[in-house]
Amino acid sequence: MRIGEIAAVVGVTTRAIRHYHHVGLLPEPERRPNGYRAYSVRDAVLLARVRRLTELGLSLDEVRDVLADDAGRDLADVLDELDADLARQEAEIKERRRRLAVLLAAGPGEGEPLSPALAELLARAPRTTSPTAAKDREHLTLLDVPGADGQEIYTALGAVAADPAVLALYERLDELADAPVDDPRIPGLAAELVAAVPDEVFAAIPRDGTVVPGFKEALLAEYAPAQAEVVRRVMEAFIERGRG
């Protein structure tokens, strides 16, 4: 096989193969009289193993150590492993297609890949044209990742999402879009927003949680100055309340 052919068989790029040669991870095969590399089945098996190990997150140095430990294995054993690897890929592709089918069946605008807990929470929220309400709902997806404790928080927010009074608070926040940063409505609105959040939400927030540096500034930058001042006060009140 030539380099393009082995790349197609294993599912890597020719650039990656040349890099593996350069760092000594993949031995250079013999060359034909015309100068082209001639790859064997064993080269393909080794390359497939390198691809699999790198997909698992191993560095190239770690891959080299693993391959050294496997030196001398029978080709049949390595081929069995390659077959199992292909079966794993096939199962992953089927699962991805299943998820895609669910999104396609949901129709335009309803196919967001959300967790069941967040999808249920948003379904309970009344329809609105409020820009700040829509923005806040988008921010909830930041909790929809592993390790973010979003599921418990979504459950605690259920009553808030269905409360028309909370939507009215968002509409008041919308009214501050063109207001100055010292607008007298800011303190009262911030206090009402904080009071609208039930204690269960704060109980669901990890005590040892950390805020990514720069996140607060990035979040506030999405709002108009007066709105950002409300959000800033709410965030600070949340921090204090969470410490209590």
TrEMBL record:
<dbReference type="InterPro" id="IPR047057">
    <property type="entry name" value="MerR_fam"/>
</dbReference>
<keyword id="KW-0238">DNA-binding</keyword>
<dbReference type="InterPro" id="IPR009061">
    <property type="entry name" value="DNA-bd_dom_put_sf"/>
</dbReference>
<feature type="coiled-coil region">
    <location>
        <begin position="79"/>
        <end position="106"/>
    </location>
</feature>
<keyword id="KW-0175">Coiled coil</keyword>
<protein>
    <submittedName>
        <fullName>MerR family transcriptional regulator</fullName>
    </submittedName>
</protein>
<dbReference type="InterPro" id="IPR000551">
    <property type="entry name" value="MerR-type_HTH_dom"/>
</dbReference>
<feature type="domain" description="HTH merR-type">
    <location>
        <begin position="1"/>
        <end position="69"/>
    </location>
</feature>
<dbReference type="Pfam" id="PF13411">
    <property type="entry name" value="MerR_1"/>
</dbReference>
